[in-house]
């Protein structure tokens, strides 16, 4: 498992550019004698293991894309691809699923059902790989699906789960303010796009605190504010870019409406114009109650798991949401923080790494979920 993970870590591929990784995955499954489909939805791989006896079909999903980040770790398995790195643990997800496939294959005569291994491309970059893979039939015949995310800031041996929303909807927006530029010494002849943009930034922060029910969670964050110009010139145009995170579709739509009202009102008060673009990203990941409770039950009975925590939802986004919109299932976090590390780096950091023992924990729990599903049928 570690060997596979370190190979993948050294050979990362960006979202929608995955070529060698899906080949590696497909070859692994073919050597096990599994039924394999390649190029599913574009670059995905789906493998099936049929047990000796009939029963339900359980899908397990792992993503395999990397990020445009320079790997700055001083380790033997450091990325060999400049500017590309597995900085979110997808190499670990793939490794644990491949080895689990091998283990389940060794006991297939005892299995009462079918296991579908969904290896997904492009989770990191919307519109993502889940939706096209579903449209290409990766969930056909599937009764239930499970997935996990190795999480480097959760202690090793800990599993975090919850019923209902576990990860947020992740939307993207841009605001382009068109003012009237001019000389910095004569601002009265201009419509200052930077001033207008600054007012928009402040006004947007009032939406969550004053228009959203305090019992509902939401985030509006501005990540970019660009108005490149000379120091003595008032900018003609300013561009803001950011993200909105919500757990409810009603709140999501309310915030989009409120943002438009606030932005239009601010800009009109300065006599400028604006273009507001809002695009929906991944929906919220909403676990099915029964399957989330099964995760808790099975995790509590898995020897390597030392603690099972009913967690609060995370504001990060994940396109596992699309699978859960189509079949029942659950998504959970597997602790991957090494207790001996002096510093734990978060996901998407140039020094990101995992305690590789976490892969065994994730594989064991997913495997036990498969067996539990077959037993309950």
UniProtKB/TrEMBL annotation:
Residues 173-264 form the Peptidase M20 dimerisation domain. This is Peptidase M20. Mn(2+) binds at residues 88, 90, 124, 149, 348. Keywords: Hydrolase, Manganese, Metal-binding. GO terms for molecular function: metal ion binding; N-acetyldiaminopimelate deacetylase activity. It comes from the Bacteria. One of its GO terms (biological process) is diaminopimelate biosynthetic process. The Mn(2+) ion enhances activity. Its cofactor is Mn(2+).
């Amino acid at each position: 498992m570690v060997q596979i993970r370190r190979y993948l870590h050294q050979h990362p591929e960006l979202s929608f550019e995955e070529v060698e990784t899906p080949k590696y995955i497909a070859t692994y499954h073919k050597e096990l004698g599994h039924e394999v489909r390649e190029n599913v939805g574009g670059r995905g791989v789906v493998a099936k293991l049929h047990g000796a006896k009939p029963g339900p079909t359980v899908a397990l999903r792992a993503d395999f894309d990397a990020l445009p980040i320079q790997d700055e770790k001083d380790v033997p398995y450091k990325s060999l691809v400049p500017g590309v790195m597995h900085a979110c643990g997808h190499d670990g997800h793939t490794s644990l699923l491949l080895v689990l496939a091998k283990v389940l294959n060794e006991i297939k005569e005892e299995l009462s059902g079918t296991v579908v291994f969904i290896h997904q491309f492009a989770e990191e970059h919307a519109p993502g790989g889940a939706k096209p893979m579903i449209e290409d039939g990766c969930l056909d015949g599937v009764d239930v699906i499970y997935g996990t995310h190795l999480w480097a800031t959760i202690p090793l041996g800990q599993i975090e789960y919850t019923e209902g929303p576990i990860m947020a909807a992740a939307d993207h927006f841009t605001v382009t303010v068109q003012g009237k530029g001019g000389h910095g010494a004569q601002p009265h002849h201009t419509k200052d796009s930077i001033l207008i943009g600054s007012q928009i930034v402040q006004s947007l922060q009032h939406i969550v605190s004053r228009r959203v029910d305090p019992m509902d969670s939401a985030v509006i964050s501005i990540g970019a504010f660009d108005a490149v110009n000379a120091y003595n010139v008032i900018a003609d145009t300013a561009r803001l870019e950011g993200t909105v995170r919500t757990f409810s579709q009603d709140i999501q739509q309310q915030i989009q409406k409120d943002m438009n009202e606030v932005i239009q009102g601010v800009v009109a008060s300065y006599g400028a114009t604006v273009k507001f673009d809002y695009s929906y990203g991944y929906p919220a990941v909403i676990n099915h109650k029964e399957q989330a409770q099964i995760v808790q039950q099975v995790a509590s009975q898995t020897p390597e798991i030392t603690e099972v925590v009913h967690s609060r939802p995370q504001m990060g986004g994940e396109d596992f949401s699309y699978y859960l919109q189509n079949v029942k299932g659950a998504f959970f976090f597997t602790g991957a923080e090494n207790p001996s590390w002096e510093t734990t780096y978060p996901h998407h950091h140039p020094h990101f790494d995992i305690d590789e023992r976490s892969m065994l924990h994730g594989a064991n729990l997913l495997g036990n979920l498969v067996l539990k599903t077959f037993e309950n049928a």
